[in-house]
Amino acid sequence: MSKIKFLSFSFEYSVGSVIYRIENGKILFLLLHYVSGHWDFVKGHKEKDETDLETLKRETFEETGIKDLKTVKDFKKCSYYFYKAKGMEKNKRIESGSGVNIFKKVTYYLSETGEKTVRISKEHQGYTWIEYEKALKRITHKRPKRILKEAIERLQRAGM
Asked: Which of 51, 60, 70, 120 could share a disulfide with 124, CB 3.0–4.6 Å?
């Protein structure tokens, strides 16, 4: 008789944004370099009773210091994935009784800012404002690359 081990999963919901600004007629996207080593967009957990846009503004400010944010109304894309917590995150989850196997949903919005200066949080080790083609190469994972492609298509449809 074989033993079947069932894994417990925690569900997490986050909100993120593809943030861009226009400089000298060029679209530049904000990418954050996470302490874990990957490059990605601003994103974070939704708190109780927050709307997606409230989460987006709070997380953007917490992670970048950016306050000036105009969200494009007709851009909303979702990404789903599984991951296993490692390192400090794993330890925190075990202490709190949360599962280390996570099913995550992230809803991404497209947002414009006029701000150039970024003040990164302790979750990050760097950032860059970067053009589309270079951003596609820099982003670490497939899902954010797909979201970026959809964002540039949306901006191009708007004549940018």
From this structure: 120
